[in-house]
Write a structure and sequence with these properties.
It is a single chain. This protein is an all-beta fold and 196 residues long. It has no helices and 14 strands. Strands 7, 9, 10, 11, 12 and 14 form a 6-stranded antiparallel beta sheet that branches. A hairpin with a 3-residue loop joins strand 11 and strand 12.
Amino acid sequence: SPTISGNQLVVAVSCYYQADGIPWSISDSNHNVWKTAIDYANGAHILVFYAENIVGGAAETVTLTASNPTYFIVTAVEYGGLASANSLDVVARNRATGTNYTSTPVTIASGNELLVGVHHVYGAGITFTPTSPWSTVATQMNYDELQVQDQVVASAGSYASTGTESSANDTVSVVVAFKGAASGSNSRPSAPSNLT
């Protein structure tokens, strides 16, 4: 689907091996400016990239490049209603074992923020059940599995990306908080097509 000018792209990446692929680079067909929200390597490797106030287009293509061959999974999501600049607020990270997963909390000072949680497990076929009101954006599998979830929060407070898994796993998790626009609200995500 086409991307819309003024929106924000968020790209979640998980790599099976924490040291592979470094350094990573990201670009897109509309020459938007990309920033790194979080880069967390602890067993597996999770990165979250974002491009603010994008130039949209009918055939948006996002390209992620690893510096050497490796196994990785990518999910790209488009959001509206976010701050057009300096949208990144706070991040948190965690690695845990068991059937419960958590990013550990972020604390935000005001409401109208988008929270994006990203979780990686080494197996495939694991069912993630986010804790309400978190919603699943996408779950992708290769040799391992990447799950992305989100929610929009209206109030200040502490929030963690949490849930349960269908079996006990070694789970690497992050959460990223993005500030909403001064007026308006965050919209539900739509995943761009033509991802490479």
